[in-house]
Amino acid sequence: MINTHADMPISTTEKATYTKDLSLSCAKGIGIILMVMGHASCPERLRHFIYSFHMPLFFIMSGYLLSNYISKD
Question: Which residues does 51 contact at the CB level (< 8 Å), separation at least 6?
Answer without folding.
Answer: 38
